[in-house]
Amino acid sequence: MSRLVPDNVAAPGERAARISFAFGRRFFVFFFIGLLWIVPAWNQLRFLYALFVWDAFVFAMWLADLRRLPNPEALEVRRVWNEPPALAQKLQVTIEVRNSSRASVWAQIYDDAPVTFSQAFPQGQCVVPAGRSTSIAYSVHPQARGDMRFGEVWLRYRTSWFLAERWARARIGQTVRVYPNLQEAQKLRFHLIRSRQIELEKRLKRQRGRGREFEGLREYRAGDEFRDISWSSTARRGKLITKIYEIERSQVLWLVLDAGRLLRARANGLTKLDYTVNAAASLAQVGLYSGDRVGLLAYGRRPQQRVAPGQGSAHLRALIESLAQVRAEEFEADHLRAVELLLSSQSRRSLIVWMTDLAETAATPEVVECTAVMTSRHLMLVLIPEQTDLRRIVAARPKNAGGMYRYTAALEIVQRRDLLLRRLRQQGAMALETAPSELSMALVNQYLQIKERSLL
Length: 456
Known about the structure:
By secondary structure, the protein is α+β, with helices and mostly antiparallel strands. It has four domains: about 130 residues, Immunoglobulin-like; about 45 residues; about 230 residues, 3-Layer(aba) Sandwich (Rossmann fold); about 35 residues, no CATH class. The chain has 13 helices and 21 strands. The longest helix is centred in the C-terminal third of the chain and has 26 residues. The chain is elongated, with a radius of gyration of 33 Å. The two termini are about 30 Å apart.
């Protein structure tokens, strides 16, 4: 995933404004000390001359300190990334400042980070020695996927005198892409490496009597399944003949993501769409590592992202890049349009993992109707984020009339969702409803079971 790390950008400093210098805090301290001469000057006016001399001396020292300050062009600022930004994962951003002048400076640094990374301007302080570089690091916590814009870095620097200061900026604005939770996907991939199924896939180890790809014929042996008997060959040879299969090396796996309004609901600070995108990223890595060809279709009213099935590390990056740009829409998704597009582009039987939600309406949701069309040609796995808040209400005992009304309404919705899940299973689809935070693990486990049982 090193290729997903944003580029490091650098630029020399420049004046922050037409007037980019000011008085430091010590200048005002010394200036107000000089006002003490007003006390004796109340009786003898000659002490006012001492006040003017003191103020002139302080101003001269300020000018000398200002001349010591390096020009903004002598400071080079660089923003350094060590890991790719991932949704809801803390990461550190480093700001390096190189001072090519002969004077050391004390700098206060402000980075114009997007509000989805940090609610306040990230800032830090450091001493930059002459002819050397120093860095500061700050933590951010991305709360949204997609492309985010970092702005300029602002500097406020002084010498050790703290009498004068300059303001500078470095134009290192850049667009940074926030990806799904990649750490979770990596953990699940390691779990997959340890599984027996993937060991079989990686070694291309054949298992007779299993799988769906035809390998050859042989005489019937005790323990062979009757469904594998080739009756035409048996009739020609006059004895029982069994068909033998091998595990398919490369199957097609489609990740279909609903980005409609139902997936905008939040759970633990993230939307349901965020959880399904994380689950899709995890399954994409697992599927590619197991040798399958993985494709992606994310849709709302219209298709948002579409990646044809493929393999390899470059294809995985394309999938991750596309998943990062999936956005929740304000309107109901057009499921029928997505199904028509998928059926027209995928004629061969494949595993379709459909991540969606069920509309809470009296009519039959379009998802259920579309699933009935898909199951005749493909193996369907419908993944639905659970309504954990409703389950929590149903599990609790109501304590008053208001609680009873909430309990009754929640129970009605939960029962209807259970009914729709049963209908999906009756149509031949595998339907899985689980808590949003557990979607990734549940999906990968279900995928491994499908591979283990050679259901595709």
